[in-house]
Amino acid sequence: MTTFRPSKAGFNDRETQGPLWIRVDVSIVLLAIGLLSLGLIVVYSATRGIPDPETGAVNRAFIERQLVFVGAGCFFAAGVATIDYRKTRLAVPFIYVGTIALLVGLFAFGENFNGATSWYSFGFVTLQPSEFAKLSLILALASWFSSVQSRDGLQLVNVMLGLVLAGVFAGLVLLQPDFGTVMVYAAIVAGIVVVAGVAIRHVIAVLLVVAVAIMAMIQQGFLRETQLNRFTAFVDPENTARYNVNQSEIAIGNGGLTGKGLFQGTQNNNSLVPEKETDFIFSVLGEELGFIGGAVLLALFGLLLLRIWRVAHLAEDEYGRLICVGVFSMFLFQAFQSVGMNVGMMPVTGIPLPLISYGGSSMMTSLLALGLVENVHAHRLR
Asked: What is the mean pLDDT of the segment spanning 10-38?
């Protein structure tokens, strides 16, 4: 694979071509707004409950919090977009170590929810460090692989050292336990390593290492029986862990071509789909907006991914390119996994649908990731 070579133009050549706000990729902003708007509508439908027969009042607590998450995420994403990404390389080691500290701290101060100690609780606000670790991992791997590349591609030792960087995060998150997030880390690593120029023989070696590691985790009991059941439920119709998937499939099937209508979903209104505002949010959209609504959602994601890939192509340097590739891999895998899980084609892993599912940490991570991409676009040389 040909290694990307940055232009020889000066470091600040783009600084004289206008303020930051006219150098953003407007299409990414518009696509994000479209996805966020669709997500807010579906989250509201999933959480409003049945209106009070006398007053017509509905539950607005979830949508109000989600609006706060979106607003805060957009604010911080705009801030991230203004700080030259090339200057963040000096801070990457500190970000990486700080993320490890947050993940380790969960075992002393974290809150257990649904069998996983993955959150810090601050009253009405919770923080999930493993979500923000996705961004830390992208920055760390982009910095590492862009610094060790040569004209002959990546050496196996450098690939393995990159895997160690990711493995530290993966090991700490597995101990929570949260296998779904580790799958996202794996997708990020795969995307960055392949685009960075790894040789095919090294890919095979890495796959063997990963396969051995997964088998060892299963044998050593890192994955609980309930997690294994959820992970294999999509291929086993008799698996008791298929209840969520079955209800989701019924909801999506009810939607047909055009859907039952916004706020009219029977599976949704009767709360028959568990975790419908987070893991199974696509089932609400499928039931109420139908195949057309689902197609619009996937089209928006597809266009967003194309724009992110374009920014990667236009990036000034390898560091910026690999940042965009990491974000691309994260969005692609999470969207594919989340929708696939809802239609019974992928394991039940609890991975949120980016920009759509309810949740502050996930929303902030997704918007900050787009802020990084916009930063790379603003400082491109072509």
From this structure: 73
